[in-house]
Amino acid sequence: MAHTGAQSVGVKICGLTEAVGFDACVEHGADWVGFVFFQRSPRFVTPEQARQLSARTIGGPARVGLFVRPDAAVIADVLKHVRLDVLQLYTSVDEAEWFSKHFDLPVWLSLPVSRRAELPATRVADRVLIEPKPPADATRPGGNGQQMDWSMMADWQPAFPWMLAGGLTPDNVAAAIARTGAPAVDVSSGVEEAPGIKSPAAIARFIRNAQAAITV
After folding, report:
1. pTM
2. What are phi and psi of 208, to 5 degrees?
């Protein structure tokens, strides 16, 4: 897949739960860090835990809060504790638009897909995260370590911001970008030593390999 012009690939490290992982994201130049506010996830953090992590540095990566079918009260409570730059939501297109207006924040819409026909044809949020549909017995809609069928994205050239997620690792991220032309990538379990515990070395490798993969 080809893009017009050259650009560095953006990198989001999601599911930060502890200081070592957060600090590695800052040190190695992640573009975004993600906090998961979904209690069934092994990467769940409370609003206060997210506040403490975010306070470790002024500036640095943009902060993304991930919510699964939330209501406004849940998001409002989180925002009382920690400033977020982006809301990443598993919800409907209409609700995503409502949340964006209500909180005056950009919304990224997570879109699990299993076939090409499910890829969005028009802009439905400030950014869409394309990832594989979870297994039937999954307890959460994402973060399951599944890899996308990258071939379904051949020649898919949306005119809106998007991000690739699902089963990415330091070893395959460059190939994923080459196959899909993804302008940004999102990783969680692929840079972990254990669920919720990030590997600073893996974070460094992932960011280095993704940022070196220039899409043209």
Report:
1. 0.91
2. -60, -45
Residue 194 has which token pair?
């254990």
Per-residue pLDDT tens digits for 96-152: 999 999 999 999 999 999 899 999 999 999 999 999 876 555 555 555 466 788 999
| Lookup result for tokens 């898919």 | 156
For residue 20, what are its two tokens?
């070592």
**Domains of the chain listed by start with CATH number:** 10-212 (3.20.20.70)
Instruction: Give Cβ neighbours of residue 203 (< 8 Å, ≥ 6 apart).
Output: 13, 21, 24, 25, 28, 30, 191
Tokens of 212: 């070196």
pLDDT tens digits, one per residue of 149-176? 899 998 898 999 999 999 999 999 999 9
* Residues 118-133 as b or e (16 or more Cβ within 10 Å = b): eebeeebbbbbbbbbb
Q: Report CA torsion sign: 48, 63, 122, 38.
A: negative
Burial label, 151 (beta-carbon count in 10 A; 0-12, 13-18, 19+):
exposed
Pairwise CA distance, residues 100 & 88, whole Å: 10
- The letter for the amino acid at 71 is D
How do 10-13 and 184-187 pair as beta strands? parallel
- Secondary element (H or E) of residue 176: helix 173-180
List all residues 6 or more positions away from 12 whose beta carbon is below 8 Å from its beta carbon: 30, 31, 32, 33, 34, 64, 163, 184, 185, 186, 187
